C-alpha cells in the first residue's frame, strides 16, 4: 500500500464585524483586523492507492493558502511512501528544507498537517484508535479546564466565571496582559475572580507573551499572581527567550508554562536541558505533527515536566487529535477546553460544524476519552464545510 494523493483545504471564515484582539498581541491596533479577522484552518487529506483516507490539520492563525502552496510543493516526496511509516516520511519532508533554515513557522505547520494525516491513516489501516499508537489508553476521563476568562468589564468576567463553575469546571484560565504597563488593573481583576470562585478552584493565567522581552516586568506580575494562588503563568514573554524563561522559572515558585508557539523536538530539547520551563503545551498541528509530539512527550517524561496540550483557536479536527494525545500520555496534567469563540456575533463553524458528530463529551470537570471502537482519530469530516469555506 502506498500514498497516492495529498489534498489541501485552506479554510477561512470571515467575521461579519471587526473585533478588538481578544488576547494580548503586539501592535494590536495595527494588526488585529488581520490576525483576528476570521477563523482559519488548513485541513489535509491523504489517500492511499487502495482508497483509504487519513486527515490532518495545519494549525494556523494567518494565510492558510500559503500552507496549501507549501504542501503542494512537498507532496511529491510524500506520494509513493508507505503510510505505515510516518516517522520515515517526516524525515524526508524535513530534509527538503532543513539546511535552508526553514525549521519553524509555515514549513513545519505544513509538515504537521501531513504527518497527522499519516498517523490517522496508519491507525485506520490497523483498525485501531489513534491513541493506541501513542502509548495506549492510560485513562478514560481527561481532567480539563475552562479557557478562558478575558479581561473585560468586571461584572461580565465574574458572570462568565460563574458559568464555568455551573458547567462543572473546577479549573479556569485567565487571559491578561493587553495593557502590560497597567498590570495592576489586571491583578485587581484576578483578585476579584479569586474571591468569586474561592480557594478550591484552580486558577491559571495566560499572558500570550504580553511582556515580550521584559522578563523583569513579568517577574513583578508573577509575584503578584503567586500571592493569589495562581497555579501556572503561561507564555509571559516571547517564546524564543529561553534565558528569560529560565530566569522566571528560577525566581518564581509558581509553574511557568510554555510551548504552544514553538516547533519540533529541538526547541523543546533546549528548554528541557536548561530547566527553563515547568509545564509544556505543544500543539500537534503546529509543532511538527504526531511524530514530533511523541518525541517531545518522551523527553518531557524524562525531565519530569507535566504535559498540558494546547488547543486554542484550532479547528475541531486538531482538538480531536489532542484528545488522543491526552488519553495516551502518562504525564498528562490537564486539557484546555475553549468555552467561547472570538466573536460574539459569529460562531466558529470550523470548531462547531467541521465534524459530523461531537467529539468532546464533558462531565463534571472531565472530558471523555475517544471511543475505542472508532479507528484512527475517530472522526468524519463534514465535506460541506470544506467546500463552503475553502479559499482556493
UniProtKB/TrEMBL annotation:
Cofactor section: Mg(2+)
SMART domains per UniProt: MR_MLE
Mandelate racemase/muconate lactonizing enzyme C-terminal domain: residues covered: 154-255
Keywords, comma-separated and alphabetical: Magnesium, Metal-binding
Lineage top rank: taxon: Bacteria
Listed PANTHER family: ENOLASE SUPERFAMILY, MANDELATE RACEMASE, MITOCHONDRIAL ENOLASE SUPERFAMILY MEMBER 1
Protein known as: Mandelate racemase/muconate lactonizing enzyme family protein
Organism: Pseudohoeflea coraliihabitans
Amino acid at each position: 500500500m502506498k500514498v497516492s494523493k495529498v489534498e489541501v483545504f485552506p479554510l477561512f471564515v470571515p467575521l461579519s464585524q471587526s473585533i478588538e484582539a481578544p488576547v494580548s498581541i503586539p501592535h494590536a491596533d495595527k494588526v488585529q483586523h488581520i490576525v483576528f479577522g476570521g477563523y482559519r484552518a488548513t485541513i489535509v487529506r491523504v489517500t492511499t492507492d487502495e482508497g483509504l483516507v487519513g486527515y490532518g490539520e495545519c494549525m494556523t492563525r494567518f494565510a492558510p493558502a500559503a500552507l496549501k502552496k507549501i504542501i503542494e510543493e512537498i507532496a511529491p516526496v510524500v506520494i509513493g511512501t508507505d503510510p505505515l511509516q510516518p516517522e520515515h516520511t517526516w524525515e524526508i519532508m524535513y530534509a527538503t528544507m532543513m539546511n535552508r533554515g526553514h525549521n519553524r513557522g509555515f514549513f513545519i505547520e505544513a509538515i504537521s498537517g501531513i504527518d497527522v494525516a499519516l498517523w490517522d491513516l496508519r491507525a485506520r489501516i490497523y483498525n485501531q484508535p489513534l491513541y493506541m499508537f501513542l502509548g495506549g489508553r492510560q485513562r478514560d476521563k481527561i481532567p480539563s479546564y475552562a479557557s478562558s476568562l478575558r479581561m473585560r468589564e468586571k461584572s461580565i468576567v465574574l458572570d462568565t466565571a460563574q458559568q464555568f463553575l455551573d458547567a462543572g469546571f473546577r479549573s479556569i484560565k485567565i487571559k491578561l496582559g493587553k495593557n502590560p504597563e497597567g498590570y495592576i488593573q489586571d491583578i485587581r481583576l484576578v483578585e476579584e475572580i479569586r474571591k468569586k470562585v474561592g480557594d478550591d478552584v484552580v486558577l491559571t493565567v495566560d499572558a500570550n507573551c504580553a511582556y515580550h522581552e521584559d522578563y523583569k516586568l513579568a517577574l513583578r506580575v508573577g509575584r503578584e499572581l503567586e500571592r493569589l494562588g495562581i497555579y501556572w503563568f503561561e507564555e509571559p514573554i516571547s517564546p524564543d527567550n529561553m534565558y528569560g524563561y529560565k530566569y522566571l522559572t528560577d525566581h518564581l515558585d509558581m509553574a511557568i508554562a510554555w510551548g504552544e508557539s514553538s516547533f519540533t523536538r529541538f526547541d523543546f530539547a533546549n528548554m528541557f536541558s536548561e530547566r527553563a520551563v515547568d509545564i509544556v503545551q505543544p500543539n500537534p498541528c503546529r509543532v511538527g505533527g504526531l511524530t514530533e509530539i511523541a518525541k517531545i512527550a518522551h523527553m518531557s517524561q524524562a525531565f519530569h515536566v507535566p504535559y498540558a496540550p494546547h488547543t486554542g483557536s484550532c479547528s475541531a479536527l486538531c482538538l480531536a487529535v489532542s484528545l488522543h494525545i491526552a488519553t495516551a500520555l502518562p504525564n498528562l496534567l490537564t486539557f484546555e477546553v475553549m468555552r467561547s469563540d472570538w466573536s460574539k456575533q459569529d460562531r466558529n463553524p470550523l470548531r462547531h460544524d467541521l465534524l459530523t458528530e461531537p467529539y468532546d463529551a464533558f462531565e463534571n470537570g472531565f472530558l471523555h476519552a475517544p471511543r475505542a471502537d472508532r479507528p484512527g482519530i475517530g472522526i468524519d469530516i463534514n465535506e460541506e464545510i470544506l467546500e463552503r469555506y475553502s479559499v482556493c
